[in-house]
Write a structure and sequence with these properties.
The complex is a heterodimer. Chain A is α/β, with parallel strands linked by helices. Chain A has helices spanning about 10-25, 65-75, 90-100, 135-140, 150-155, 185-190, 205-225, 230-240, 245-250, 270-280, 290-300, 310-315, 320-335, and strands at about 5-10, 30-35, 40-45, 85, 110-115, 165-170, 175-180, 195. Chain B is about 40% helix and about 15% strand. Chain B has helices at about 15-25, 50-55, 75-95, 110-130; strands spanning about 10-15, 35-40, 60-65, 100-105. In chain B, about 55% of the residues are buried. The chains are: A alpha/beta, B alpha/beta. The interface of A and B includes residues 228, 301, 327 and 351 of A. The structure holds iron/sulfur cluster (3 copies).
Chain lengths: ~350, ~140
């Protein structure tokens, strides 16, 4: 299926009109998208078409990685009605990872995802964001350039064109284009307002943005110099870490109900302290900071989508997501794996090929 | 550093490699005394965290050994172990740790001789690398 629907209005207006129509016509039963609640911005699941006015589905913010929330909503089974889900490309990729890991269900969901200019630092979110920071952001996006104040991993994100979306949106000031990628999309858009025509997303038009993203990624990796860290570098970078485990709790990929690092296995009992102190003569408290971060890389680096949530919540500004993007990139290359690309492809650590990796054997 | 004797942690699977070590023992085959053995039900049980912990706690090298391809008691645990191992190796590389400090090898229950060769080889390799300092926190040093 291919086709293009053009709807007038600024990004949020135009998509609201579209979603309202879908609800009114009964093509869908609910919408999951960003919306304002008081002074905050959250993901909302609405079924009442009046409530669509409260939604800001194309706001360039990510208060939480939506994959996390969708996993909570669909963990024990698909949602009862058909839900249109408006999320960023990396959230969709993380969601696909969770489906593969049997933590979520894709049934009944129709995914709408924008070609993504990145998300602005959420800490800076103010209720007047729409008037203040968004116009500048939109201007840069219209020029297919990186905007200021987007997350560092967004600046370096090469996967800003959604993979696996039923509908891809190109947000623009005057009118938004909705590209219908699947039969599901074609089905629900029948009779929608706007101009329906033939047409496929012209990826080449985003070459300039792709170029700067690639260059930024290279720069980020170069500046990070992870390969030279050693314990000294690790201590330096993670020296400020409070051990709050915020980075883990917001990470869509860290879904374990009981994280290994929060289990009794890693509790420091008096005998452990005693043996550690005998060995080292001193100990950072809480201990195991670097162990936690390295451990997390080996556990979930293979599926890191570089969404940037972990850096965003870190209270002491450790560039967690840049470190994970870098190490994830290396680990993913071993298996030629792109997280969230193919829902049928098993996660590398849950499968194997008999004849492979002989170079790691002795 | 010529008198440096490395400490090497060895994870052996219950069904093949541990029995291989046993055979080496009853056959009185000699091998360096640098290893400490932890018996695991399957090489697939070895979480990369175990290996990190060993390195952080001052072991100079780690060996994981399981059944040969196709011989795993649990059918495929050793293949999955190999993948986890490959991931860990990458992560260590990044942190500036010499990848040769952690090794992975297949040893069957009948291979007492091979077991002793593997231990000798790993011990030599790690000896040549010198003491592991990259992940060992020593306050004030
Ligand atoms: S990481 Fe990529 S897809 Fe995710 S918000 Fe940033 S630019 Fe968008
Ligand atoms: S590690 Fe950080 S950047 Fe990677 S998926 Fe988790 S929250 Fe996102
Ligand atoms: S969010 Fe920051 S301070 Fe908290 S555990 Fe993660 S790195 Fe440490």
């Amino acid at each position: 299926m291919s086709g293009k629907l053009k709807i007038k209005g600024d990004p949020n207006d135009s998509i609201r009109g579209f979603l309202r129509h879908l609800l009114e016509s009964g093509k869908i039963d609910g919408v999951f998208a960003l919306g304002k609640t008081g002074k905050g911005l959250n993901y909302l699941l609405v079924t009442d078409k009046e409530k669509v006015d409260e939604l800001y589905p194309l706001f360039p913010f990510m208060p939480e990685n939506a994959a996390n929330l969708l996993s909570r909503l669909t963990f024990s089974g698909p949602l009862p009605g058909k839900i249109a889900v408006v999320i960023k490309p990396c959230e969709l990729r993380a969601f696909v990872e969770l489906v593969k890991r049997e933590q979520a269900s894709r049934d009944n969901l129709v995914f709408i995802s924008p070609v993504c200019g990145g998300v602005l630092d959420f800490v800076q979110y103010k209720n007047d964001a729409l008037e203040k920071s968004v116009p500048g952001y939109m201007k840069s996006f219209a020029k297919r350039e990186n905007a200021e104040n987007i997350r560092p991993t967004c600046r370096a994100c090469e996967y800003f064109i959604p993979i696996n979306a039923d509908i891809t949106v190109i947000p623009a000031e005057e009118a938004c284009e909705f590209y219908l990628n699947t039969d599901k999309a074609g089905e629900i858009t029948k009779g929608a307002p706007g101009d329906l025509s033939d047409g496929e997303l012209d990826e080449a038009a985003f070459e300039p943005l792709m170029g700067s993203r690639k260059a930024e990624k290279e720069k980020l990796f170069e500046e990070l110099k992870l390969e030279d860290y050693g314990i000294k570098g690790l201590v330096e970078v993670f020296g400020k870490c409070l051990g709050c485990h915020g980075c883990m709790s917001v990470c869509p990929i860290c879904y374990c109900a009981l994280c290994a690092f929060e289990s009794k296995d890693n509790e420091f009992t008096p005998p452990v302290f005693e043996s550690e102190l005998t060995k080292r003569g001193g100990l950072r408290v809480p201990p195991n900071t670097i162990f936690y971060h390295l451990g997390r890389i080996t556990h979930m680096g293979i599926s890191c989508v570089g969404c940037g949530m972990c850096s965003d919540v870190c209270p002491v500004d450790i560039p967690v997501s840049s470190i994970f993007l870098r190490s994830g990139d290396a680990v993913q290359k071993v298996f030629d794996y792109l997280p969230g690309k193919d829902i049928e492809e098993p996660v590398p650590l849950s499968t194997f090929i008999e004849d492979e990796l002989t170079e790691v054997e002795d | 550093m010529s008198d440096f004797e490395p400490k090497i942690m060895t994870f052996l699977c219950n069904w093949c490699s541990y029995a291989g070590a046993d055979l080496a023992g009853v056959s009185r085959i000699q091998y360096p005394p640098n290893t400490r053995v932890i018996r695991v039900p399957c090489s697939g049980r070895v979480d990369p965290l175990f290996i990190l912990k060993c390195l952080q706690d001052g072991y100079d090298g780690v060996l994981v050994s399981g059944c040969h391809p196709g011989d795993c008691h649990y059918i495929s645990g050793n293949y999955v172990a190999r993948r986890k191992f490959a991931v860990l190796k990458k992560a260590l590389e990044f942190m500036g740790m010499e990848p040769d400090r952690v090794q992975f090898s297949w040893v069957s229950a009948g291979e007492g001789e091979k077991f002793s060769q593997v231990i000798s080889k790993v011990t030599e390799t790690v000896k040549a690398l010198g003491p592991a300092k990259k992940l060992v926190k020593r306050i004030g040093r």
